[in-house]
Amino acid sequence: MEQAADRSILKVSSLHKQFPVYGSFGKIGGAKAYVNAVTDVSLQLNEGETYGLVGESGSGKSTTGRTILGLTPASQGQVLYRDRELAAMTREEMRNFRKDVQLVFQDPFSSLNPRKRIGRMLEEPLIIHKMGDKAERQETVFRILQTVGLQPEHAFRFPHEFSGGQRQRLGLARALIMNPKIIVCDEPVSALDVSIQSQILNMLKRLQRGMKLTLLFITHDISVVRYISDRIGIMYLGKIMEEALTDDLFHEPLHPYTKALFSAVPDFNRSRLKERIMLRGEIPSPISPPSGCVFHTRCPYATDVCRTDIPAVREVRPGHKVACHFVD
Amino acid sequence: MNKEPLLEVKNLKTHFHTERGKLTAVNGVSFSMNTGDIIGIVGESGSGKSVMSQSIMRLLDHTDAIEYEGEVIFENQNLLSLPHSKLRAIRGDQISMIFQDPLTSLSPVYTIGNQIGEAIRLHQKKSKKEAHQQAIEILRMTGIPSPEIRVNEYPHQLSGGMQQRAMIAMALSCEPKLLIADEPTTALDVTIQAQILELIADLNRKMGMGVLFITHDLGVVSEICTGVKVMYLGQIVEEAPTEQLFQTPLHPYTQGLIQSIPKLEGDRDDELYVIEGTVPSLTDIPQGCGFSTRCPYADELCRTSEPPMQTAQTDHRVKCWHYEALNKQEGRETTVGTSS
């Protein structure tokens, strides 16, 4: 893990993203306030690893994913792909970036065009990127359908003819067809039943290993992220609170939020006697996040210093980073 | 009187008449529950768990295309044959319901207090002022901070967790004997979900009402329920006290469900267990055992004739022809969920 820096394929450094909130006259009069969706997030994806980004709703995990993809520009900070900054890329570089970095959405129902046959949908990126002639493209489509566990004849069907699990396979096929380096998966199994979820998770893990993909896996589901990820970052109110290798994190969560989050997960394997850390209150509004440590309003251990000083992200064990004043 | 169960469902069937013919969403469900029980109904989408719970309240009555069979006995009355006027007196008073999405269940144009007060004044002879006072008390009980202010607010001014608390407050305003909760925590974050589960368990202890808890999440069931019923294709395939179900699941479907969920402890390198295939459509329900198309142990008998509900132990019943043989040979399989 020491040479981790050398294997970095994508790097995010002190990323900020704010969305303006306008008044009743729209953009006239300027922004009333800003939603601080992502505040000072730094992370890096190493080649061939699965990085899990976990958080509750409003934690900024999806916004981080979208900013990495260049779908929404960063307010501050940088995204570096193979040492090239996203914002400074030429059109040609951007074209290649879009080929290398793909996205799988949560909802397989709304992310497929109902009027297009599957084959046509899968072929489209190949046409755009001028890859192969018609016969070769057809061949690629058939091959990719088999890769995700579907049949070549499915290429002639429409999205409504597929079940939820099959549609998520199609979403994955669409991401894989460009032979990408990185796939950002935004809650890819959250809309699926457990028996279908396990099929998709197994396939993702197999493909990731087989094709040496780098995955950024965004989810709110703790048990899913544990199964799929090599490293995990825990987000709360736009910030990364803790980051570590999966086994280290589950063996010894250090941040009070991580501990509370893990203990809140209902799990039938765990003995009921295990003490639950009940968090009081709710996630504060990202329009006016708390001063100091953003978690201090709900933290059972918060003191005065937490209310005034923003805790720095410190590496307290090798590869284990925490943003808390009281962890050492 | 004490011996009488709170709710008794006998061979309930719910049919929908559609263009594609008669669809049977609930296909012969029988169970009974007592005051103080929290019974979990677990199933994947399409298992009929929601239609079953709505049939108990007859919430689907507004369409002509619906047909019920069987009996739902509550307080010595069959709810399925009750006239609407009597049913209205029971709904919201003795049986009430909370739903998954609080924002679609609350009216956006009335204050929280107004909506809770309405339920109270509908069933109890109380003045507007008294109802308002009572609404504040109930909101306080559900743990909403400063209820005297919140009571005058509109649903959009509350967060998701608060809205769900307000929904629960409304459901409990007339101190029902039975609360039907249909996926009440599915739309919430885990830290908020933990709060709401605690609240429901706490109110169940204090008020002694029965709770019918419908969910797809086995983890949630293990936290809160005293007994579990697993549904598949409109039928209960296994029922047992919670701990027993998770320790020794007998039905291949229950075993599959438990094993296909990623664990929070233990080895992560193994592939997850997969139940092959998908839930069959209601238009083409398999012959024999409903699960036979996906069951790894299915044989000729399973494909041709429907297994009866068999009693494996007191309180533990399973709808499978081969559960005895399977769980003797595959003794290891059944405990995978708990020991590994």
Question: How would you describe what is shown here?
Answer:
- The complex is a heterodimer of chains A (328) and B (340).
- Chain A is an alpha/beta fold.
- In chain A, 31% of the residues lie in helices and 26% in strands.
- Chain A contains ten helices and twelve strands.
- In chain A, the strands form two sheets. In chain A, strands 6-7-8-3-9-10-12-11 form an eight-stranded mixed β-sheet, with helices on both faces. In chain A, strands 2-1-4-5 form a four-stranded antiparallel β-sheet.
- In chain A, strand 7, helix 6 and strand 8 (214-219) form a beta-alpha-beta unit.
- In chain A, helix 3 (118-128) crosses helix 4 (134-147) and helix 5 runs parallel beside helix 6.
- The radius of gyration of chain A is 21 Å and the shape is globular.
- Chain A starts with 7 loop residues before the first strand and ends in a 6-residue tail after the last strand.
- Chain B has 340 residues and is of the alpha/beta class.
- Chain B is built from 14 helices and twelve strands.
- An eight-stranded mixed β-sheet of chain B has the order 6-7-8-3-9-10-12-11, sandwiched between helices. In chain B, strands 2-1-4-5 form a four-stranded antiparallel β-sheet.
- Chain B is globular.
- Chains A and B meet through helix 6, helix 7, helix 8 and helix 9 of A and helix 7, helix 8, helix 9 and helix 11 of B.
